[in-house]
Amino acid sequence: MAGRFLATALAVSVALPAAALANEASDKVVSGAIDGFIRPAYGRLVEQTAALGASMDKLCAAPSTDTLEAARKAFSKTTESWSEVEIIRFGPITEQNRLERMLFWPDRKGTGLKQVQAAVADKDETATDAARLGGKSVAMQGLGALEFVLFGTGADDLAGAGAAYRCSYGKAISGNVGKIASDVDAAWRDDKGFAGQWKTPGPDNALYRNATEAVTELLEVYVNGLELVRDVRVNGFLGKEAAADKPKQALYWRSEGTAAALGGNIAGMKALFDASQFGSLLPADSQWIALSIDFEFANAQNAASAVTGPVDAALTDAEKRGKLAYFGVVTSSLSELFGTRLAGALGLTAGFSSLDGD
Fold it and tell me: How does pLDDT run across 235-256, given as a tens digit for each residue?
């Protein structure tokens, strides 16, 4: 996998003076990542999940074409908001299976889909309570499950009175998603919790013994995030040739949110890069790396924004399919810039990809 290639490529060591890196890491980079990106991004996600919950309440109370459309729009806004912050795949989101509970993906064997379909068909009443739902299979309680409820087979029935159970189940999912977002948001805002540990590395810190380890955590957001976007998200449905495309393997294909999610992932990485001022750690003769990263982020976002409409239709459009292929090329370029160039210039070495073996 590309992760193994990156792990090899990252074994570069051209170190800056340790004291300089320590000062920059503690005073600017990690604090900038937390205060300038993670906390605001989770704040927006909390607001959006609350709006989603309110829209589900209205849909269930007064089912109609208009309230269904409003709920669907709120769902799409939520997935876009989540896509920006889901690149932070460490810390509070990893506790209590929150990451998988928020979004169970990929579901290569369709196990999760079958569980969701069974809940709808059997009208499992225990799945209509957000608290009880949170203790069930991770595949039944997150954004993937809610997408099926709102956009999958039979979803149009939500506009009438005949889908009360389905709506109640969707309402419980939205409540569960909202609680996960709120819990993670609160954890990140607690300076005595994980955020404090990341901000203050030291010999007595169980997670980060020094600033190099703390900054390496930030580097791995990009190393692992770009691999996820390219190898799991894009290459999961985009074949080497059109005949090998698998549009129904694309994330959010039912809600036509595939490209928006890819763009959201890149937008989150760009916002994190800016807020942390990661590039400012580079010596003067390596500043071109930061400029190149900015350039490629813009290219990736432009490519993703050019892919509109259903993903199956986009794949039959030569121009849009070409944009998706180009998006993959750009993410590979970004991987090289972060994993080899930036890492080498800062004397950082990232560990093996978290996606190895997937």
Answer: 999 999 999 999 999 999 999 9
Contact in structure between 352 and 339 (CB atoms under 8 Å):
no
Is residue 209 in a domain? yes
Is pLDDT at 234 greater than 90 in this prediction? yes
Domain end, chosen from 189, 218, 248, is at 189
User: How much is the pTM?
Assistant: 0.92
The candidate with the shortest Cα–Cα distance to 263, out of 27, 80, 72, is 80
Question: Are residues 214 and 148 located together in one domain of the fold?
Answer: no
Cα separation, 1 vs 231, in Å, equals 8
Would 333 be classed as within a structural domain? yes
**Closest Cα partner for 57 from 48, 67, 47?**
67
Same domain for 29 and 70, yes or no, is no
**Contacts (Cβ under 8 Å, ≥6 apart) of 132:** 126
Structure tokens belonging to residue 320 = 């849009």
- Asked if the structure places residue 229 within a domain, the reply is yes
What average pLDDT does the structure give for the chain?
A: 92
What's the rounded Cα separation, in Å, for the pair 197 and 206?
8
* Distance separating alpha carbons of residues 40 and 141, to the nearest angstrom: 25
Task: Give the domain range for residue 82.
Answer: 38-189
